[in-house]
Amino acid sequence: MSNITFECQKSVYAAMMANTTLTTLVSSRIYDEPPGNCSYPYVLIGGGGTTPHLRHEYDGINNSFLITIYTNPGSLGFYPSEQIAEEIKNCLHLKKLTISDANFKNIITIEESMDRERDGMYRNIDLRYKMIIEKQ
Question: What is this structure's pTM?
Answer without folding.
Answer: 0.90
